Amino acid sequence: MIGLTKIIVAGFKGRMGATAVDMVLNHDGFELVGVYDPVATEKNLNEVAGYADQNVPVLTLEQVPDVTPDVWIDFTIPKAAVANTKFALEHHISPVIGTTGFKAEEVAALKQLSKEQGVGGLIAPNFGLTAVLMMQFAKQAAKYFPDVEIIEMHHDNKLDAPSGTAIKTAEMMAEVRAQKEQGNPNEKETLKGARGANYDGMHIHSVRLPGLIAHQQVQFGGVGEGLTIRQDTYDRVSFMTGVALACEKVTAAHELFEGLENFL
Ligand SMILES: NC(=O)C1=CN([C@@H]2O[C@H](COP(=O)(O)OP(=O)(O)OC[C@H]3O[C@@H](n4cnc5c(N)ncnc54)[C@H](O)[C@@H]3O)[C@@H](O)[C@H]2O)C=CC1
Ligand SMILES: O=C(O)C1=N[C@H](C(=O)O)C[C@H](O)C1
């Protein structure tokens, strides 16, 4: 019999971390061996409402190696996730990182560390299958329609802007899109920020409102025609199919991949 995959969830007190805890507890073949979050005051998950019948230690960072996890799920905050990923790789725990806000040079350094340690992993700005498809469709369209703007819309507790998904969408489109500075070459912002962020000539607009979860529209314009590719996340549970898939596959990986599509 193949053993259980031992998993730790970092950021378990947060919106995504709590959803990941439920996924791991209810997924065949997974064992939740610990949870970690610096704001936690509990010593065990059974002290958290709704988890009385669980026996999962709330760990400090130093205690993590004691429970010998195979996989580190991370839904934390941008400034913590780089150090967490480094810690996981150095302790031969395969990271499955959902936290966004990584800089390109930070990812490059972590990829190098993954090679040196011989430990694979995954950093994915979006574990939603509709989001992965939306990015792939947008890349396909960008080949024919270089005139494009991205509008991403999220809940107003989000720390990073633009979203990791918007940046990855722009990166993927930039691979195939004819370079173009979107808009009128003579345009002037009379109110700073009106044209949003600029990635390789493509503008990204970040909307933050209560009531939203995660949504993105990639809007293309052509001569006399337009194409809008839109993705909506209505429930955070939608991310868990991708997270579970990553946890199943990541321990066999030999490098640190970027994007769930690498595991599909
Ligand atoms: N890849 C994906 O599919 C998705 C990614 N995200 C990303 O996940 C991250 C978390 O999002 P939410 O759960 O909404 O945020 P949240 O604010 O609800 O939760 C973050 C949690 O991380 C904890 N934390 C802070 N520093 C930490 C550290 N050093 N180690 C461990 N935990 C730490 C906080 O105490 C908090 O409980 C964000 O970066 C967000 O963009 C969110 C949804 C989907
Ligand atoms: O913070 C969020 O909520 C989300 N963050 C990710 C991102 O930045 O792209 C994924 C999804 O959009 C939800």
Automatic annotation (TrEMBL):
Keywords for this protein: Amino-acid biosynthesis, Cytoplasm, Diaminopimelate biosynthesis, Lysine biosynthesis, NAD, NADP, Oxidoreductase
SUPFAM superfamilies: Glyceraldehyde-3-phosphate dehydrogenase-like, C-terminal domain, NAD(P)-binding Rossmann-fold domains
Binding site for NAD(+): G11, F12, K13, G14, R15, M16, D37, G98, T99, T100, A124, P125, N126, F127
EC number(s) recorded for this UniProt protein: 1.17.1.8
Domain Dihydrodipicolinate reductase C-terminal: 131-263
GO molecular function: 4-hydroxy-tetrahydrodipicolinate reductase; NAD binding; NADP binding; oxidoreductase activity, acting on CH or CH2 groups, NAD or NADP as acceptor
Reactions catalysed: (S)-2,3,4,5-tetrahydrodipicolinate + NAD(+) + H2O = (2S,4S)-4-hydroxy-2,3,4,5-tetrahydrodipicolinate + NADH + H(+); (S)-2,3,4,5-tetrahydrodipicolinate + NADP(+) + H2O = (2S,4S)-4-hydroxy-2,3,4,5-tetrahydrodipicolinate + NADPH + H(+)
CDD domains for this protein: DHDPR_N
InterPro entries: DapB_C, DapB_N, DapB_N_CS, DHDPR_bac, NAD(P)-bd_dom_sf
Span of domain Dihydrodipicolinate reductase N-terminal: 6-127
GO BP annotation list: diaminopimelate biosynthetic process; lysine biosynthetic process via diaminopimelate
EC class of the enzyme, as a word: oxidoreductase
Residues where (S)-2,3,4,5-tetrahydrodipicolinate binds: H155, G164, T165
Active site: H154, K158
Signal peptide start-end: none
UniProt-annotated location(s): Cytoplasm
Pathway: Amino-acid biosynthesis; L-lysine biosynthesis via DAP pathway; (S)-tetrahydrodipicolinate from L-aspartate: step 4/4
Keyword set includes Thylakoid: no
GO cellular component labels: cytosol
Subunit structure: Homotetramer.
Family named by the database record: Belongs to the DapB family.
Function (record text): Catalyzes the conversion of 4-hydroxy-tetrahydrodipicolinate (HTPA) to tetrahydrodipicolinate.
Name of protein: 4-hydroxy-tetrahydrodipicolinate reductase
Organism: Loigolactobacillus bifermentans DSM 20003
Source organism phylogeny: Bacteria, Bacillati, Bacillota, Bacilli, Lactobacillales
